[in-house]
From TrEMBL:
Membrane topology category: Single-pass membrane protein
Catalytic activity reported: a di-trans,poly-cis-dolichyl phosphate + UDP-alpha-D-glucose = a di-trans,poly-cis-dolichyl beta-D-glucosyl phosphate + UDP
Species of the source: Dryococelus australis
Coiled coil: none
Keywords: Endoplasmic reticulum, Glycosyltransferase, Membrane, Signal-anchor, Transferase, Transmembrane, Transmembrane helix
Name used for this protein in its record: dolichyl-phosphate beta-glucosyltransferase
Places the protein is found: Endoplasmic reticulum membrane
Length: 423
């Protein structure tokens, strides 16, 4: 029997009559190449009947059609049917059917993609550091070069503030002034701190502007790590952390969007989290695990009211993706004001792969996976002109990074490094 006759027979037998088919339009009937041997008598061939409403029912070819075979030349037949009887019929051979083959090749495609991702990815982050990125210049004493210490060393000051800065010659000075004034008030009580400005391959005079602070405040208080090429905020924060001396480490945006005095809120929260005060027992707290995130989640309603619908949709979409793929315990993952104990920083940053904007998400993902206690604290936030976030493009980049974080950890292409020497 040729395919055409077969179809006529089939449609006569299977014409759907229920009211749910009444909206169906002309329909596509697909008949895939088969051969007589495969459809020999007694072999079961399953038909799937799909209506325009996408309801499905599997039908079996009547026994007496068991010896039907397809014309090899016929691949697709289009039929105009009465509206009330229209439906899409595809034929699915259980052994050699085209649908199965397609599903198999799609599966093989995904498998291949996964293999490529796993094989082409380094499981642990490779932090390359040029020799010029290993020292800072002491502009307070003949511009001598002084090597940065390592995060693996013991803490020697109470607090390190890491400021990632990319082309920030204008926004940086007010932030540094505010930060240094706030912290220097505590110095008289024996509080030791340092500020590390990481100029991330800036094209402007960010590094020399920051070095003037080294000259004025001294190399114990202000250091400038000048990266030779732009890595992205995550890369800059990571190298700043690796070069820090503090028992606790804060990273803070160079634009001063958060009032530095809000740091006391983070300190209070960390004290509760680890059960000790780092200003009193820095050695003890440096060995504890804890992360406190400044948060703008309480400002979300205002942000939605003032932003365009498009930006609001992008923001909510990003939050949803973060929640679905990576981090559930923190509402605002992106706030550039986060405080970590030295041990938490050592553990998280030695496994951190993402160098761009989405690094905060990976940082918190790592913390969640390793059970590091994380708390969120509401802070003030002022939109400061000159944002480096490029509308849409940066969001797309973040979305892609989020999916990659999820996929790479899921496949085991990225792994967590066990570097905790303190344990
Ligand atoms: N290191 C580094 N920091 C960057 C880069 N882009 C932005 N930043 C820093 O990230 C912080 C936040 O950037 P900002 O433009 O204020 O972002 P927004 O507050 O989210 O609009 C600032 O300290 C910037 O200097 C970059 O490519 N590299
Ligand atoms: Mg900002």
């Amino acid at each position: 029997m040729v395919a055409d006759t077969f179809l006529q027979h089939l449609l006569a037998c299977q014409a759907p009559t229920s009211s749910e088919h009444s909206e169906c339009r002309p329909v596509q009937v697909s008949v895939w190449r088969g051969d007589a041997t495969n459809n020999s008598e007694g072999e079961q061939v399953v038909l799937r009947l799909v209506t325009a409403k996408n309801t499905e029912s599997a039908l079996q070819i009547p026994k007496h059609l068991g010896n039907v075979y397809w014309q090899p030349s016929v691949r697709q037949v289009y039929r105009q049917m009465k509206p009330q009887t229209a439906a899409r019929v595809t034929v699915d051979h259980p052994k050699k059917g085209r649908g199965l083959t397609q599903r198999k090749s799609a599966g093989a495609g995904w498998l291949l993609l996964c293999v490529v991702i796993v094989r082409s990815t380094e499981p642990y982050p490779v932090v390359e550091r040029a020799s010029e990125e290993k020292y800072f210049i002491n502009t307070a004493a003949d511009n001598v070069r002084v090597d940065f210490p390592s995060l693996d060393d013991e803490q020697t000051v109470h607090l390190s503030v890491i400021v990632p800065a990319f082309d920030e010659e204008t926004r940086l000075p007010p932030m540094l002034d505010e930060c240094l004034q706030f912290l220097s008030v505590r110095s008289s009580a024996g509080f030791l701190f340092e500020v590390i400005v990481v100029s991330d391959g800036s094209h402007d005079s960010t590094a020399s502007v920051a070095r003037k602070y080294t000259a004025r405040w001294g190399p114990q208080l202000v250091r400038v790590l000048e990266l030779t090429t732009n890595r992205g905020k995550g890369g800059a924060v990571c190298l700043g952390m690796m070069s820090a001396r503090g028992a606790v480490l804060l990273f803070a945006d160079a634009d001063g969007a958060t009032k530095f005095s809000d740091f006391t809120k983070l300190e209070g929260s960390l004290k509760r989290l680890v059960g000790a005060d780092y200003t009193v027992a820095p050695g003890k707290v440096s060995q504890q695990l804890g992360i406190v995130c400044g948060s703008r989640a309480h400002l979300e309603k205002d942000a939605i009211a003032t932003r365009s619908l498009f930006r609001t949709v992008l923001m909510l979409g990003f939050h949803l993706l973060v929640w679905l793929l990576a981090v559930r315990s923190v509402r605002d993952t992106q706030c550039g004001f986060k405080l970590l104990t030295r041990r938490a920083a050592r553990i998280c940053f030695s496994s951190l792969h993402v160098q761009r904007w989405a690094f905060d998400v990976e940082l918190l993902y790592i913390a969640e996976r390793l059970g590091i206690p994380v708390e969120e604290v509401a802070v003030t936030w002022t939109e400061i002109e000159g944002s480096k976030v490029v509308p849409v493009w940066s969001w797309l980049q973040m979305g892609r990074d989020l999916v990659l974080i999820w996929l790479r950890y899921l496949l085991g292409a990225w792994r967590l490094k066990l570097v905790d020497k303190a344990e």
